Amino acid sequence: MGGKHPNIHNNLEYAVVCFRPILQRLRIRNESSVGIPVFLASFPQLWTLSNINKWVITILKTNLNDPDCKAKFLSQYHKNTGIMECYIVLDNVFFANGVVSNEIRKAIAVHEFCHFLALLYASISTTEEVLQKKLRERLSKIVDVLTNEQVLKLYQLLNKSRPLSDDFSDFEQTKDGHFRLDCEDLDLSYTDLFKNFLLSRQMFDEYFSQKDKEEFIRLLKNEENEAAIDLYFNIAKIIAREKWLPENFAINQAIDILMKFYLSELPKIQV
To answer: How many CB atoms neighbour CB 65 within 10 A?
Structure first.
């Protein structure tokens, strides 16, 4: 298998920019798109990766009818053809009409997408034989299963007010090791990838307009700090509503984006 792609293994922003279009094409929030396969061959930014034209991922909606299984990620590699089929399977309960069920659907689908990404990273980092061995160790075709209790805990974690990074590393389903197949050539953390696929700096930029940035800096320079924070947090709340994210998570992630990027970049703006 194997493949080369600059920065895809060690640059978080680049990886999110590279793989987010696949997540967008899955149209998690559009129930009518469920069951429609997404072929990785349609993403030019991935064409340098070996065999990627034979990968396909699909979201399926079904009645799992099992209290110990509310979502799962399945994969099947066809050795004769080189085709890799991947499925994110979600229980019908996530398609109920309601804010919480919508937010949970988004979080769970992104969680399973990170398992898909781990499989992809493994495939471009190792041989076919090693990858198959790792998949067999992960219970054959079933790579991940989420129980009802785990789903609830994941949502509660995302909806906490200002969770520390340790919270994500303490919860099994958000640990880097939960996703990792241990054969990836990857310096990035799947925990960070998970959080940034939910809300990245790239996504925040789509809402944080130049006018907003100028006003934000003006308020800070005038020491109107509360008004500046209100402006910034209101943008996070809008993103939360429109992108089906728990509001507390959107605010927490917005704070991280502010600390990592905007505080060093925004002072350069002339107001």
So the answer is: 8
Instruction: Indicate the domain borders of the chain.
Output: 12-198, 201-268
Burial class (CB in 10 A: 0-12, 13-18, 19+), 62: exposed
Residue 243 region by backbone torsions, left for phi larger than 0, else alpha for psi between -120 and 50, else beta? alpha
Largest CA distance in the chain: 66
User: Is 46 within 8 Å of 52 (Cβ atoms)?
Assistant: yes
Q: Are 98 and 107 a contacting pair, CB within 8 Å?
A: no
d(CA 105, CA 120): 22
pLDDT of residue 182: 77
pTM of this structure: 0.88
SS3 217: helix
Where is pLDDT greater, at 167 or 13? 13
Q: Tens digit of pLDDT for each residue in 181-223?
A: 877 778 899 999 999 999 999 999 999 999 999 999 999 889 9
Give Cα 186 distance to the centre of its chain: 16
Going from the C-alpha of 50 to that of each of 43, 78, 79, 120, 124, the distances in angstroms are 13, 15, 15, 10, 7
How many Cβ atoms sit within 10 Å of the Cβ of residue 212?
A: 14
Q: Residue 243 pLDDT more than 80?
A: yes
pLDDT number for residue 1: 47
The residues, any chain, with a CB within 8 Å of residue 54's CB and separated by 6 or more, are 41, 81, 82, 83, 84
Looking at residue 167, its pLDDT comes to 63
